[in-house]
């Protein structure tokens, strides 16, 4: 049941979709610094500012480190704040990402996922987002422009929830989504405004009559209590994501959860993948289903905090699961694999589990690559034997 | 101050009680203590403006002595004190003597 | 156009009626110059003021959980970004003020030590000044990374012995002269740039008032003796800040919208640099036999800088 008005379908890039969400949200302050492939978001937003389409005060900083520092100052001061970045930009922010979450500031980053250097590469993979895995930020991943837009509209409701008060990254694949034009549906400005609502900062710095000190030095006598309290906030995120998504679904007719399942109910061979690869995988799942293979997909949406129980439950009845990582942990398994393995640990008599690293630095994942993975997963499901836990695909051997 | 557990911490660790360091005593750091000799004092208030520890007490625009709860005994006040006719109005004396 | 405020000169007597906005009970070392600088800065201001503080001695010692010495809104986030954090705070102030959510007229000050300002915070400072935020950045300058244990910064004077440029048998301390940050800030064409010293509280406080009344960003470098790092007594911070000025190592001057003014010219009473460096243990080796050239060079550096400052005043003065 949808109660809000919907606009007609439009063909836009992922960056355009996110810029449009930011225009509709109209944050108080945005800090912007260019980096491919996220640059277009801030270019478009700057046009909104220059043409009076938003009230936002823009800070055109001299680095991403200063972008996040300015966001932290602005958010603590007492308003709604956003920025956008990719790869090296997020890496340069790394120090400040921890501080944003430690200070419980509900800042939003539109993260256009791109490979980290070296070697220098501007194309899409998830090494930036995965590198920020432990920064205390909420991470929502998006398959396409529509999801990136919808996640952006929902982001502040999650981040600013009184039980949560944590910063949030909305992620989408660089170029594959950020620069590709696809058909999607925007919401009406009024509906977005109403859905996102007003923000009231807890203990705003600019409340001069109640002066406070933000950012004390904390010694071993208190540090651990601070971190334990921060962890507690992350435990509340799951329920808030579910509630906000349910409200969004009810109002606007598009349903989201902690993750998306595609023909997973009775699936025996399952692939797990983030972001745009899920689109290609869904097509191949359909083809394999036609051939009589019980194939399925799990596409995580909320990667941090990771919904271990729910993912474990969703996968426990499969025979074989291949986790596909568009990022690597050198000397370790892929980061998504590690989470899924943790989620399946209580069900260790369950599916055989293995890991494929694919698509680094924007290398295409074609349908025939997915077929290779599905074929191997079918084989593993039959024999129960995994030859190599982690292997690279889409690479020349 | 009783140590808080993690549930009792203020949101984000923000300190809401501005200036509560006033309740923390640094007077025990002292090995020398300033003594005010009122008859030599010309009320120039240099001791007050130069004190790093906000430990020179003033009332009705006049210096009235020291806040020994916080004074760390650095002696800047004694050095800067012009005194009267070459006689200092602040002298440093060893603690406990 | 000058932005000089036409106010009655402040007196210490009247100032004592104001509440100190930095409380006692902070953990700065006994005799540290920095809290005196901060007290004077805060006493100079009549409007509500919000502080952004870089990581450093001042920050860790004035706000150690669960205590804070600050009676005004205060925020620290990291080492290199006091200017960027202040940019964010000031921008949010403008955003909320525009929307009528804040009524008060507020001022914004960022404090950083010389490490957090000359070195790691240089880029963020330059960016904030260029963007034209309505804020005053104050560097309390003790000429080294004192919080981490007296390491060389680009503000460290020539010849100084620090823990990362120790005076050894082969290398006699720091071989470079300090970066002249105040002039670099003036070169940003900021509304106001100045150097001050806590011994001259009236000059310091007048400059803070001018800086905050300026239309645009302002920068102040304030010398803040550190008895631990300078290897001196706990009682001589004001004395040494005075000597820094009287020897012209740390001239008092200001640049108001491009107009250079030297606020204190000792003329023929200019003291030799040895008077400032002699009491400081970090320069002890300069007086050792064989290092006479260092004393000469130090004096030469000070003289050249002073002469060039006078030329700037001559060319761009009133």
Rg from alpha-carbon coordinates of chain B: 17 Å
Structural class of chain A: alpha/beta
Structural class of chain B: alpha+beta
Number of strands of chain B: 4
- How many distinct domains of chain A? 2
> What is the mean pLDDT of chain B?
97
Number of domains of chain B: 1
Strand content of chain A: 15-25%
| Structure summary, number of beta strands of chain A | 16
Distance between the ends of chain B = 31 Å
Tell the overall outline of chain B.
Answer: elongated
CATH homology superfamily name of the largest domain in chain A = Thiamin diphosphate (ThDP)-binding fold, Pyr/PP domains
What is the multimeric organization of the chains shown? heterotrimer
Gyration radius of chain A, rounded: 21 Å
Q: Largest sheet of chain A, order of strands side by side?
A: 3-2-4-5-7-6-13
What CATH architecture of the largest domain in chain A would you give? 3-Layer(aba) Sandwich
Number of helices of chain A: 13
The CATH topology of chain B comes to Alpha-Beta Plaits
Mean pLDDT of chain A: 97
Question: Summarize this, please?
Answer:
Chain A has 397 residues and is α/β, with parallel strands linked by helices. Chain A is 41% helix and 20% strand.
Overview of the molecule:
The complex is a heterotrimer of chains A (397), B (97) and C (318). Chain A has 397 residues and is α/β, with parallel strands linked by helices. Chain A folds into two domains: 6-252, Rossmann fold; 259-392, Rossmann fold, CATH 3.40.50. Chain A has helices at 14-25, 39-50, 64-78, 87-102, 127-131, 145-159, 189-196, 223-235, 237-252, 277-290, 308-315, 335-344, 367-383; strands at residues 6-13, 29-32, 57-60, 81-85, 108-113, 138-142, 168-173, 181-187, 213-214, 259-262, 269-272, 295-300, 302-304, 320-325, 352-357, 390-392. In chain A, the strands form three sheets. A seven-stranded mixed sheet of chain A has the order 3-2-4-5-7-6-13, with helices on both faces. A six-stranded mixed sheet of chain A has the order 10-12-11-14-15-16, sandwiched between helices. In chain A, strands 1-8 form a two-stranded antiparallel ribbon. In chain A, strand 4, helix 4 and strand 5 form a beta-alpha-beta unit. Chain A is globular and about 70 Å long. The mean pLDDT of chain A is 97. Chain B has helices at residues 46-50, 76-80; strands spanning 32-36, 56-59, 62-66, 90-94. In chain B, the strands form two sheets. A two-stranded antiparallel sheet of chain B has the order 1-4. Chain B has a single domain, classed as Alpha-Beta Plaits (2-Layer Sandwich). By secondary structure, chain B is of the alpha+beta class. Chain C has a single domain, classed as Thiamin diphosphate (ThDP)-binding fold, Pyr/PP domains (Rossmann fold). An eight-stranded mixed sheet of chain C has the order 2-1-3-4-6-5-7-8, sandwiched between helices. In chain C, helix 4 runs parallel beside helix 6. By secondary structure, chain C is of the alpha/beta class. Chain C is built from twelve helices and eight strands. At the A-C interface, strand 3, helix 3, helix 4 and strand 9 of A face strand 1, strand 2, helix 4 and helix 6 of C.
